[in-house]
Write a structure and sequence with these properties.
globular, alpha/beta, 7 strands, 52% helix
Length: 330
């Protein structure tokens, strides 16, 4: 039997942790998984395990938020997709990684975000190195550790970065509570859900981002660099297709200052249209389809939770109409 002072200490600990959890849940915080290289690596491993049933989504946070798993699977008739996109992440290096892995024989749906795909972004491209290294070094022990971490993360708020010492300090310095990240809820398959309309002063935030973009000069690929990238991409598509897999390129919706930035630096005729000509992969640009054209991301870049569910279903319908997806199962 435990001594009484240990029982008292345990009761105090449970009361403190429980009170902390209840308090922050009342203030809109939700438990969520940590979207780290270990979670990406486990998702990537599952893509190989599923063999020809694998459908993976590649891209940036747009892909993570705009495509939701269940409505997309219902519309396409495919198995529920796996999410390999990264926040501020590149598409080309992930596509290359999939093409070089003989074990990947599924469908890769690859986001074409002009800001990342048609620009020289070596630092961003290197983001993937740790994720791939973690994937290639997965061990049974690492898988078990990841599973335990996921159980804890999905039930408790205590490890949320938004409730760490520094965020708390900054918020209290301004006389308020910290605010939840309304785009930070991550599922086991790495789908990200949120609602940008809940962000306080979204209009001011968009205005600030617009000013930043107007003063930013990206490193746009030169015609030679673009031709080289498209040649490499076509090679990756062929490598996946020869194994029985497939590749679909998609340009997801943008709006406001983000759309203005894209049009300024990456004219469609010089970028997307060149990609379409360079490869015989399936291609879907949201502006080419009336059912997709009406979606306007409230922050210029991402759809909210409800809009993403509608978009996922309609995007799936487009893939079925094109013949790229089999359609709902009877």
């Amino acid at each position: 039997m435990w001594p009484s002072h240990w029982l008292t200490a345990l009761a105090i600990l449970i009361a403190v942790v429980g009170g902390w959890e209840v308090f922050w849940r009342v203030h809109d915080f939700e438990p969520t998984l940590s979207d780290d290289p270990a979670l990406w690596a486990r998702t990537r491993e599952r893509a190989n395990e599923r063999a020809r049933d694998a459908v993976v989504l590649v891209g940036s946070s747009r892909m993570q938020m705009d495509i939701q798993q269940e409505p997309f699977a219902r519309a396409t008739g495919w198995a529920e997709p796996l999410q390999l996109a990264l926040v501020r992440g590149p598409s080309a290096p992930v596509l290359e990684h999939l093409a070089e892995d003989e074990r990947f024989v599924g469908v890769a749906i690859v986001e074409i975000n002009p800001v990342l795909f048609f620009a020289h972004t070596p630092n961003i491209d290197r983001m993937l190195e740790e994720h791939i290294a973690t994937f290639e070094s997965l061990t049974p022990g690492a898988r078990f550790e990841q599973r335990l971490a996921m159980v804890f993360q999905s039930h408790f708020l205590t490890r949320l970065p938004d409730l760490g010492y520094e965020p708390l300090k900054r918020a209290w310095k301004h006389g308020r509570y910290p605010l939840p990240s309304y785009n930070a809820t991550v599922s086991e398959d790495r789908f990200r859900a949120g609602d940008y309309l809940k962000i306080p002063n979204l209009r001011n935030a968009n205005a600030a981002n617009a000013r930043l973009m107007r003063s930013t000069t990206p490193r746009v690929l030169t015609p030679y660099q673009l031709a080289e990238r498209l040649r490499e991409v076509d090679g990756h598509v062929r490598a996946i297709r020869v194994r029985g897999g497939d590749v679909i390129f998609v340009h997801l919706p943008s709006s406001l200052h983000v759309l203005e930035y894209e049009k300024r630096w990456w004219k469609r005729a010089d970028t997307w249209d060149e990609l379409v000509e360079a490869t015989d992969a399936w291609t879907v640009h949201y502006l080419d389809h009336p059912t997709l054209r009406s979606f306007d991301p409230p922050d210029g870049d991402h759809l909210g939770r409800n809009a993403a569910e509608f978009f996922s279903e309609r995007f799936g319908d487009v893939l079925v109409e094109l013949g790229a997806a089999p359609g709902p199962r009877g």
